[in-house]
Specification:
The protein has 361 residues and is an alpha/beta fold. The protein has 10 helices and 9 strands. The longest helix has 21 residues.
């Protein structure tokens, strides 16, 4: 056995030396053959295999939480470019989301203890004794170019902005900075199925709660105004019930009311005044016909009313013909002795006249 072992060791050494010298690979051991030729002696023990590890789960990617019930899509409160339903169709009571009314924010230096129609009134010099003329321009805010032309007029105007126009805070701030007085031009239900006052109009068919909600929404659209006047509203202003709702809203906010007088049967002024709301009515419409000749003729009529009564209120619209004629008329009217003033000044004069007449024996 010693001899055999020596032979094995000697042969193995020769083989290893040959491998190192020649760089040849050693033969692989297998289960059927070893260096001694015995199929059993050198069989390596089987290496236990491991089960492959399961793939590592990836962290879930961040994603929006999916609610169990789909959320409703948000819609804009007011789309100025999209007309409201025509009066021939039933008016939906939920057409416009309800927004809580915001009280007008007073500018720095204004007295917050005054009612809004005093707090935001534009100062006017009444020492000249008149005649006094207030020009009110309605329907502002939608057509920004023409609205800007109205703001650029050289005399104090009273500018009535539609509440469903866009960008009202910026537009109305520019108007106040230019020395003009502001109104909210409240859309109201007219006569006629084809007449469309626009979104969020006051309509007694909807009931008192909806009317008040719409009034709140309209009055929250911008700040710095002295009161309201009606946009259309020939039917609504004939409703004493509807105008009582408006009167309560104006009284609680310290606002004035100008009746645009779109119906000869209007009870708006008398109803609102009975609630202690400062109220007056317009005298002349400048541009029922959109022509420079019509506007010029109506301004002459306004002057006659002012000379006779001491005051006059004329209502026009931001149309090119109207604005062209007004631009030329303003310096002529001032040279002729008329004082162009904001609406609150005419209201003060008229209230003073009424007080004087009431105090006479």
């Amino acid at each position: 056995m010693a001899a055999v072992a020596a032979v094995v060791l000697f042969g193995g050494g020769i083989a290893v030396g040959a491998w190192i010298a020649g760089g040849a690979a050693l033969p692989e051991l297998s289960a059927s053959r070893d260096l001694l030729g015995s199929p059993q002696a050198a069989a390596p023990a089987p290496v236990p295999t491991q089960k492959p590890l399961p793939p590592k789960a990836e962290a879930p990617k961040a994603s929006a939480v999916q609610p169990d019930i789909p959320l409703p899509k948000m819609t804009k409160a007011v789309e100025a470019a999209k007309p409201a339903e025509t009066m021939a169709q039933p008016v939906a009571a939920t057409a416009v989301p309800q927004v809580a009314a915001l009280p007008p924010k007073p500018p720095v230096g204004d007295r917050e203890d005054l009612p809004a129609w005093r707090r935001y009134a534009v100062a006017a010099d009444l020492s000249g004794g008149g005649p006094f003329i207030a020009i009110v321009l309605d329907d502002l805010g939608i057509d920004v170019r023409r609205s800007n032309r109205a703001v650029a007029l050289s005399a104090p105007m009273t500018l009535a902005f539609l509440p469903y126009a866009e960008g009202l805070e910026a537009q109305t701030a520019a108007a106040r900075a230019a020395g003009h007085e502001l109104l909210v031009h409240i859309p109201m239900q007219p006569h006629g199925e084809d007449a469309d006052p626009g979104p969020n109009a006051l309509d007694m068919r909807l009931g008192a709660i909806e009317v008040l909600s719409r009034l709140d929404w309209d009055l929250a659209r911008f700040s710095g105004y002295v009161g309201i006047n009606n946009h259309m509203g020939s039917l609504f202003t004939e409703s004493e019930e509807g105008m009582r709702l408006v009167a309560e809203g104006l009284r609680d906010r310290g606002l004035l009311f100008l009746d645009s007088l779109t119906s000869p049967k209007s009870v708006a002024a008398s109803t609102v005044a009975s609630y202690g709301v400062p109220t007056t009515v317009r005298d002349v419409f400048l541009d029922n016909t959109d022509s420079p000749e019509e506007v010029a003729m109506r301004l002459e009529q306004t002057e006659k009313v002012a000379r006779k009564a001491g005051t006059a209120i004329a209502i026009g619209h931001p149309r090119d013909n109207t604005l062209d004629v007004l631009e030329a008329w303003i310096p002529k009217a001032q040279a002729a002795g008329f004082t162009l003033v904001p609406l609150t000044a005419v209201l003060d004069v008229r209230r003073g006249m009424a007080t004087q007449q009431a105090s006479r024996p």
